[in-house]
Q: What sequence folds into this?
């Protein structure tokens, strides 16, 4: 038994399933999770000292690469003055100002500690602001594990739950809670128009991944986004952009800057903390002023605006703001996708690819899917074989066909060539 197997067996005695987040358990692909000992740049090493090229980058946050020396220095400097105060700091203001500067739709912002906390709080705020109960989400989109959002959700729930039923995707979620959640197909303009026509005056908010990344990478159509923005404006509903994944990952101004959409509220996480537990939600001042201590919508957190996480986030945002960063990141990601597609074509494997900024998707299907239904028709067995073949070649992909992948600025041409070479070998094994 190898060291990874030993640790996984040991972990299952004290941690449910042996992991602290379900998708890490390799349940869809089978096999033993890799227990990481260290990481640097585009690589991590497991406890057996095997090196892997990392293509999840902590599920998005490590956009400047693992253990970037400038980020490490900023974190060390902050840690020397204490890990937490439970009181305001100047750094919080600086980070809030930077977010508002980079995302003009965000006039005020509240720091929290996780993406789930951000989306949960944004929905409560939307309901408090509008005085309405109903919310709309879309099939295959994952917005954290708050009760009202666990209906036909993406991410790990696509592996573990029965997503064919319009019911809670998780046990422990009362039907009385999710009855206020309407679930519509992603990219279906007619469906959202009909719902607003029938129930528009009851809808508090529409929450959407502006580029879906939790049922693999799915882009929205221009018509779909325009319909959502127009309808929410017409009926006085709050449009919430869940940019926990896409914020500062697909572009400096997030997905909204690429799409020309100005949401009412935006949820952020991952990149904004540089790998530290850090997230936020923000938007129009009129809406944000309903939050306590100004308004009657309560939200609080002991570790919100944690000084060490703030330092990591500020330095990461400084690095990604440097000239040419996103042009380089986007170009490298596109180059990687082209290489994978070429290798698949040479092996005569049905395979499609897509990417935005430093975020990518690949699909064992003839074409790029545009909906949750299309995603579920991919060749999952082919993905499983490919995943393990790539792992054997030293490339770590997301252990689920329903997750987007991520690159970093540290994924240079040498790293990309190694990935494509590994893929060329792996495709031949399918």
A:
């Amino acid at each position: 038994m190898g060291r990874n197997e030993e640790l996984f067996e040991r972990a299952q005695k004290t941690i449910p399933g042996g992991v602290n987040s379900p998708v890490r358990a390799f349940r869809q692909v089978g096999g033993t999770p890799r227990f990481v000992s260290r990481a640097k740049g585009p690589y991590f090493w497991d406890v057996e000292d095997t090196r892997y090229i990392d293509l999840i980058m902590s599920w998005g946050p490590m956009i400047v690469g693992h253990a970037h020396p400038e980020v490490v220095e900023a974190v060390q400097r902050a840690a020397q003055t204490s890990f937490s105060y439970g009181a305001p700091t100047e750094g919080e203001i600086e980070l809030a100002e930077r977010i508002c500067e980079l995302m003009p739709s965000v006039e005020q912002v509240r720091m929290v500690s996780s993406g789930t906390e951000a989306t949960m709080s944004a929905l409560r705020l939307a309901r408090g602001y509008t005085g309405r109960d109903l919310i709309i989400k879309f099939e295959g989109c994952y917005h954290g594990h708050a009760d009202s959002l666990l209906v036909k959700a993406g991410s790990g729930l696509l592996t573990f739950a029965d997503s064919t039923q319009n019911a809670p995707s998780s046990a422990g979620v009362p039907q009385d809670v999710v009855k206020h959640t309407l679930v519509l197909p992603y990219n279906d303009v007619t469906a959202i128009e009909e719902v607003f026509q029938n129930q528009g005056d009851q809808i508090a908010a529409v929450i959407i991944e502006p580029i879906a990344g939790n049922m693999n990478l799915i882009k929205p159509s221009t018509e779909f986004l325009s319909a959502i923005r127009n309808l929410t404006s017409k009926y006085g509903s709050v449009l919430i952009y869940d940019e926990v994944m896409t914020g500062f990952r697909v572009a400096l101004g997030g997905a909204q800057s690429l799409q020309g959409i100005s949401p009412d509220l935006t949820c952020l996480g991952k990149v904004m903390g540089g790998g530290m537990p850090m997230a936020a939600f923000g938007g129009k001042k009129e809406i944000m002023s309903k939050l306590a201590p100004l308004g009657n919508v309560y939200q609080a957190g002991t570790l919100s605006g944690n000084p060490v996480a703030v330092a990591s986030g500020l330095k990461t945002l400084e690095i990604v703001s440097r000239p040419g960063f996103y042009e380089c990141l986007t170009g490298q990601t596109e180059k990687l996708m082209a290489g994978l597609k070429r290798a698949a074509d040479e092996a005569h494997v049905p395979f499609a690819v897509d990417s935005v900024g430093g975020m990518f998707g690949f699909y064992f299907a003839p074409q790029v899917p545009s909906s949750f239904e299309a995603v579920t028709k991919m060749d999952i067995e082919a993905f499983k074989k490919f995943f393990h073949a790539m792992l054997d070649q030293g490339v770590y992909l997301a252990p689920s066909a329903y997750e987007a992948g991520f690159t970093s600025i540290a994924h240079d041409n040498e790293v990309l060539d190694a990935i494509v070479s590994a893929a060329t070998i792996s495709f031949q094994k399918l």
